[in-house]
Design a protein that fits this description.
Structural class: alpha+beta
CATH class: Alpha Beta
Distance between the termini: 27 Å
Number of strands: 6
CATH architecture: 2-Layer Sandwich
Number of helices: 4
CATH topology: Alpha-Beta Plaits
Radius of gyration: 15 Å
Largest sheet: 4 strands, antiparallel
Shape: globular
CATH superfamily: RRM (RNA recognition motif) domain
Number of domains: 1
Length: 97
């Protein structure tokens, strides 16, 4: 499998992400925890065929959850806010949500 497809995990589909997409031409993706901004930028440009203006990332630490006397931890995640160049549009599957 290509490295670019391992970097991009899935899109974040929330009300906030949809509002950001509509107002500021930015898509929100869940990416690999070890991915850097340049890797994310090149992966988005290759996979979706769009030009990227900037990338901002946010690390989300896993919450501690309990089930009775047992406790565990959710996995850590990383979100990427990818701003597209003016005139570029988000891929079609982002538009249908």
């Amino acid at each position: 499998m290509n490295k670019d497809y391992r970097i991009i995990r899935q899109p974040f589909i929330t009300e906030k992400a949809t509002l950001i997409k509509e107002t500021s031409n930015t898509i929100v993706l869940q990416v690999d925890v070890d991915a850097t901004k340049p890797e994310i930028k090149s992966a988005v440009e290759k996979v979706f065929g769009v030009k990227v203006e900037s990338v901002n990332v946010q690390r989300l630490k896993g919450k501690v959850k309990r089930r009775g006397r047992f406790s565990g931890r959710r996995a850590e995640r990383k979100k990427a806010y990818v701003k597209l160049v003016e005139g570029q549009s988000a891929p079609e599957f982002f538009e249908s949500t």
